[in-house]
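Backbone-to-sequence.
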């Protein structure tokens, strides 16, 4: 039975590298029908941050990575907080004491290493031999256990079959193999996944780097499905150049042997592009539901809100843009962009607005097709580009020169609102 674990330390926020490690463990467990265990390594009291545990749990839930055993779920191998497992660590320390594998020095307890080469049979790296030359501390002089000890004890006690973790832990593996053997426990299969490098490739991505925390993307209103999809591709690929994939398909294809040995470079632009694709591919029902939660309370007809949101989906890259993207639809006193106003002077904006106003005065059907036809005819009549009208009229209606489809926004606003805004723009330009 495959049993894997994600064992974060609550010493800060939920780092993107930790999320990727959790994801690869979760994917493999789901791929083979195994068990995904979540345990919290909170033995380091000095670095422990209470709120950080909940941040990690919330981040896992947000990314829809459910765990089979762990906090809030329970399981036969609990408790799942290391701070609650002191009695278990005492039992395993006695095992080493009886085997004469430990000794005390300056108040600390040291593990006696064999100084023999240890084979790390890695499912990604292949066979790696490492030799631990020095005895190492497993209990500090203050009586608290060290990471290497509790990590291995928990893996033994929780019957972890596969240890999937970052490549930076490969250097610890010889210590851990020594401990597994000292306990008389089977050595799990290791899979050390590639590191995540900064966007410029200059080194490992740290929590201080821009975009390195899962919370950053929650704050920016990224879709969790998009971030999860992108994390899947940091070190793994389906080998057919596909990128945007439903998670069910990733689970079907994912295997440890397909993980790349080379470090993965984080690409924030690619992630943003992927998020935009996920936004565009949302069902209209999902898009409207999500969008409405992010808009301020406005006293307008709900059907109008639905129509406004519907024309924004194709242009929106992130829901963080939404309120700014649509605010002028609900505010008749919106501000005009000063820089755009100066730039549009070359198009003789007052003339363009008056020409357009006259053309729509007797327009029967205020539809996209008819409005586009009017702009085309005006451009031909006056020998100018259609863009001169589009940029000018958009500015008059919104105060900006970018936004949703120009021909779709006017029918949504309606004839009366469009007329009032065009006249207001004329006053502003004068």
């Amino acid at each position: 039975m495959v049993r894997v674990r994600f064992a974060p330390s609550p010493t800060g926020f939920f780092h993107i590298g930790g999320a990727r490690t959790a994801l690869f463990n979760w994917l493999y467990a789901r791929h083979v029908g195994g068990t995904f265990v979540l345990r919290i390594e909170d033995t380091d009291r000095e670095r422990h941050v209470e709120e950080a545990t909940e941040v990690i749990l919330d981040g896992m839930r947000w990314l829809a990575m459910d765990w089979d055993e762990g906090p809030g779920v329970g399981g036969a191998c609990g408790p799942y907080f290391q701070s609650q497992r002191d009695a278990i660590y005492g039992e395993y320390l006695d095992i080493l004491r009886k085997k004469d594998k430990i000794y005390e020095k300056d108040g600390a307890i040291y593990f006696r290493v064999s100084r023999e080469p240890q084979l790390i049979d890695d499912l990604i790296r292949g066979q790696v031999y490492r030799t631990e030359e020095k005895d190492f501390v497993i209990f500090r002089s203050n009586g608290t256990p060290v990471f290497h000890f509790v990590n291995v004890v928990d893996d033994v006690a929780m019957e972890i079959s596969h240890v999937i973790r970052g490549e930076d832990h490969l250097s610890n593996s010889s210590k851990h193999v020594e401990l597994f053997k000292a306990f008389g426990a089977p050595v799990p299969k290791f899979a050390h996944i590639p590191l995540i490098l900064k966007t410029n490739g200059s080194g490992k991505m740290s929590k201080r780097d821009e975009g390195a925390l899962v919370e950053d993307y929650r704050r920016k209103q990224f879709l969790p499905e998009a971030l999860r999809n992108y994390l899947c591709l940091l070190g793994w690929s389906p080998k057919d150049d596909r990128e945007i994939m439903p998670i069910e398909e990733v689970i079907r294809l994912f295997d440890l042997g397909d993980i790349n040995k080379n470090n993965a470079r984080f690409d924030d632009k690619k992630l943003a592009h992927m998020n935009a694709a996920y936004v565009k591919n949302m069902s209209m029902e999902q898009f409207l539901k999500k969008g409405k939660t992010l808009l301020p309370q406005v006293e307008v007809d709900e059907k109008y809100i639905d129509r406004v949101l519907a024309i924004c989906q194709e242009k929106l890259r992130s829901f963080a843009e939404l309120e700014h993207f649509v605010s002028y639809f609900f505010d008749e006193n919106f501000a005009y962009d000063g820089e755009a106003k100066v730039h549009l002077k070359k198009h003789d904006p007052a003339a363009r607005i008056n020409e357009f106003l006259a053309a729509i005065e007797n327009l029967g059907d205020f539809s996209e097709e008819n409005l586009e036809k009017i702009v085309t005819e005006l451009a031909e009549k006056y020998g100018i580009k259609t863009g001169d009208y589009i940029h000018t009229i958009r500015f008059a209606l919104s105060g900006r020169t970018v936004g949703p489809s120009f021909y779709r926004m006017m029918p949504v606003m309606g004839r009366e609102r469009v007329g009032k805004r065009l006249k207001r723009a004329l006053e502003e330009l004068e």
